[in-house]
Amino acid sequence: MTDQTPALRLEGIVKTFPGVRALDGVSFSVMPGEVHALMGENGAGKSTLMKVLGGIHQPDSGQIVVGESPVVMRSPLEAKAKGIVFIHQELSLAEELSVAENIYLGELPRKRFGLVDWPRLEAQTNEILGKLKVGFNAKTKVGDLSIANQQMVEIARALTVDAKAVIFDEPTASLTDAEKVVLFDVIADLRAHGVGIIYISHRMEEIFKITDRISVLRDGQYRGTLDTAATDEEEITSLMIGRKLDLTRSARTHELGGVAIEVRGLSCGGLFRDIDFEVRRGEVLGFYGLVGAGRTEIAETLFGLRDPSAGQILLDGEEVRIHSPAEAIARGISLVPEDRKGQGLVLGMNCRDNMTLPQVSDLKAGPFVAEGAEVAIFDQYRDRLDIRTPGWKQMVGNLSGGNQQKIVIGKWLSMHPNVLIVDEPTRGIDVGSKSEIHNLIRDLAAQGYAVIVISSEMPEVLHVSDRIVAMYSGQIMRTFTAEEVTEDNLIQAISGLSGEGAAA
Amino acid sequence: MQAGSLSTFLKRGAIWGFIVLELIFFSVAGEFMSLSDKAFMDVDNMLLLFKQSAPIGIIAMGMTIVMINGNIDLSVGAIYAICAIILLDSMTWPIFAGLGDWAIPVAWLLALGAGVGLGALNGLIVWKTGVDAFIVTLGAMLGYRGLVFMYNGEQPTSHLNWTLVDFAEAQVLGLHTATWFLLAVTAAIWFLMNKTVHGRNAYAIGDNREAAVNAGIRVGPHMMINFMIIGFLAALSAVVFYSESGSVNPNDGELYELWVITAVVLGGTKLTGGSGSIISTLGGVLAIQLLRKGLAHIGADTETVNLVIGLILIAVLFLDRQLNIKGKEELKV
């Protein structure tokens, strides 16, 4: 590999913003046919680097070399023309248009008088789709496709240019395992054609599975490149955060209390059926399964966002019916939702107002909001959860993911809930803050809360849970205790392979 | 300096800076171009400016909260006309003939009640059907205007009550009655939005409706209350104006919704909801009125005034956008 010319080379890239040096002399190179992981905590400079590569920001100094020639890119269009192509985490497709129109958006083949050459468009598109081996064609409406297939459309779009380097930004964030396999095949195919690939992800399993080398950024600085085959999770993590991460869990020392919530035979249309479980005070019950297994939907049902078609919910032994989040909150059920920014926070509001949002109607001094009481609540939970913010006036949109998540958790803790449901507690949160959130969840259990954690990350669910419910296709396959669960039997259960548990 | 605070400052202060610019421009230009020899920044002229700002300004306060809530109300001009007719006509109804001047508060209550009722109807439809407020109030705008014409055909509805006129033309501490109403409404709405639970929740709903629902906030009632408030304010605006003028044409109040929205948007309230300031809306209202008066002062005709206001609206929003983009870039690092 060494005697080749790199597909893409970065030399001493520096980018400063007022007051911050976002990139501080970043250099690394990607060989043709190499999958090169780029890792770093949130805020390490990955996004800024990607924007420099994508022509959105111009570097203050340093240069980008594609093949043999240094390039200057002033716009995303120029970056694409130079052969640098992005597959973004957030898809940017026109849902009402067909696959073909999306792939050639802005560059539709034309006939005379500027009319679109539909037959040629379709033929070209189907040729590309053929390479990707997908189950849809040029005429399919993009809005009708699954997220994974929409991503394939993005990739197809990348293939229309003569790509030298393709950058994948968290491509598997919303994919199921089966869909990931297809994605990895496509990446393998690209690499076989000599394309250099930069792969950004927080997920270690993927990094080890598909990448050749790993470059790490920290605080805008390049910290080194590792050979994937010759390194391990620990080494990468310590490069990323400058210390070692402890994922092993200490045994539970506190006693469990009574059953806080019990669910019997809960079903909801085609989403999930015959769900039985109970959570005791002081216990963390983990829900693990593939995306679409019905975990989030169960949480939404408990929180009053969906009406169940059958079954019972019992709180402290008493049956309840919950039809709205307001009723759920009144009964002491809280939900930290999966999509923090979309469902959990009001980004244009400050930290204090977000934290007191569900109880502000109870915090009154005469006709007005008792702002002093609000500040007191905020201060209390800022200290208790170690939320790092300059003060309550800070807009939550300006906080890091980990601190935002703590605001959401603090919001519910200040309501003194009986049951705390946390859906994907560390999604989009950097490695350092992840373990903080994990410890926090353990602490809450120790303080006597009944906690339900839904997660798609196996290490997480193994780390925080006392018991784990494995779900597959809307059903509980098996409930494991911490002692009996292993990675193997858990994977079998959520893939629908576990014979013994299925009948139970 | 903290990232983004400069642009925030510029945005907050922008409307007042714009007003100062207008004052300077028209004072200077007035020296050369004005037909009258009175200075533009004459005290009486400025007091009149406040008074003339009141009808649009009072409604604009309501529009600000409806827009912060993530909705819009296009029917305010029609509500304004209906309430004006109810105000003037009810004072001539035989059942109230024995009341003498006590017919005035009754007429006020009827007009204000009608405004609240029509607003509540809008709000209820938006709440219960889930149809976009733009569509619902567009329909209401046409429908309510239809009611106005059904009432008296093309004829104006007139009634002059001199007690009422005296009240409307009174000046307390130099300010006209209408100005006092505008200031009182501004203060009341400011308190509502900044100090009460309703205000807090309205911001939250407008910014992120899903998060608000997940926090147990009942979205529908808050929206309905806001529509009732804007209905009330449209009626109040009519009450204040027609107490003095005493005659309402069926076309009165047309395009008011657009003037109101222009003022609110100039004041920096976002069309998408979640953000906006009552005080800046007052600035937006004054800025428009200054522009109208100033252009008239230097001899421009009405058509020119509209053209200039239109251009300025677009220019201001363009500037705002640039500032927003700059602010975001500073924040992202």
Report on this structure.
The complex is a heterodimer of chains A (504) and B (333). Chain A is an alpha/beta fold and 504 residues long. Chain A contains 18 helices and 22 strands. Chain A has 2 domains: 234 residues, P-loop containing nucleotide triphosphate hydrolases (Rossmann fold), CATH 3.40.50; 168 residues, P-loop containing nucleotide triphosphate hydrolases (Rossmann fold, 3-Layer(aba) Sandwich). In chain A, the strands form 5 sheets. A 6-stranded mixed sheet of chain A has the order 6-7-8-3-9-10, sandwiched between helices. In chain A, α4 crosses α5, α13 crosses α14 and α14 runs parallel beside α15. Chain A is globular. With 333 residues, chain B is an all-alpha fold. Chain B has one domain: ABC transporter involved in vitamin B12 uptake, BtuC. Chain B has 13 helices and 4 strands. In chain B, strands 1-4 form a two-stranded antiparallel sheet. In chain B, strands 2-3 form a two-stranded antiparallel ribbon. In chain B, a hairpin with a 2-residue loop joins β2 and β3. In chain B, α2 packs across α12. The two termini of chain B are 15 Å apart. Chains A and B meet through α10, α11 and β18 of A and α8, α9 and α13 of B.
